[in-house]
Design a protein that fits this description.
The chain is about 40% helix and about 20% strand. By secondary structure, the protein is an alpha/beta fold. The strands form two sheets. It has an eight-stranded parallel β-barrel, surrounded by four helices.
Length: about 260
């Protein structure tokens, strides 16, 4: 891999900075999208338990004919499965649905359990117990790297301060959060850089009108490209990875 196209995580694992996402994609669509994406150069595939398409993603991986070692697969723990035992069971279920022997990156999808106030003491304890489970999975080589998603600086600081003296504790290697020009979150980016945590951007095209923003469109016109590619390149240049998603084969090519 070109060094500019990968992150070197804190444990020296290489993670492609451009990932193909599968949010709001059915099992059948995930199969077609992921298989086509892999055949057209994507090596990082992002899914999650709550997406309910891990089976289709796994089948696409197998049918692509690409050596498993060349691929980087991310999946995530459902918010309803926080806690040590529940997290272990959920991981094993994802592994079974994907029909893989290991996961490259396993994330806590949300910093709280379903139907539990995000700032409650119960959620804080669940985060700690869940992270212990991920550390166990990492130490037992069920996954090559571990991280979180949607965690704030406060969530991360609490996690590190509470568990750093625990046996087998490791700092999260990745935090997957929403990032785009309308939500650049420079504070968490700098904090994460200092801790050796890499950021992956979901919704890099924004959730509003960024694709029709006059400035974005003008840049696209001047560089003879599309607004979506301008936004994706902006994220890469800012220093984080980006997750793209499409079920339209005409939208797969990003340089």
């Amino acid at each position: 891999m070109n060094e500019n196209n990968v992150f070197i995580l804190s444990n020296n694992v290489q993670m492609p900075r451009l990932a193909l996402g599968t949010w709001q994609v059915t099992d059948e669509q995930a199969y077609e999208s992921v298989k086509y994406g892999i055949m057209n150069g994507y090596r990082h595939i992002d899914t999650a338990s709550v997406y309910r398409n891990e089976s289709g993603v796994g089948k696409a991986i197998r049918d692509s004919g690409i050596d498993r070692k060349e691929l980087f697969i991310t999946t995530k723990l459902s918010p309803k499965n926080h806690g040590f035992d529940a997290a272990i069971n959920s991981f094993n279920n994802s592994l079974s649905l994907l029909q893989l022997e290991y996961i490259d990156l396993y994330l806590i999808h949300w910093p709280g359990a379903s139907k539990t106030p995000i700032d409650s003491e119960k959620n804080a304890k669940l985060r700690f117990d869940t992270w212990k489970a991920l550390c166990f999975l990492y130490k037992t080589k069920k996954c090559r790297s571990i991280g979180v998603s949607n965690f704030t600086i406060r969530h991360l600081e609490e996690l590190i301060q509470t568990l750093e003296n625990e046996k087998d504790f490791v700092i999260p290697m990745v935090n997957q959060i929403e990032l785009h020009p309308a939500l650049s979150q420079s504070d968490i980016f700098q904090w994460s850089e200092n801790k050796g945590i890499k950021l992956m951007a979901y919704s890099p095209l924004g959730v509003g009108n960024l694709l029709t923003d006059p400035i974005i469109c003008e840049i696209a016109k001047e560089t003879e490209t599309t607004p979506s590619k301008v936004l994706l390149k902006w994220g890469i240049n800012k220093g984080w990875g980006v997750i793209v998603k499409s079920v339209n084969k005409n939208h797969f090519h990003f340089q």
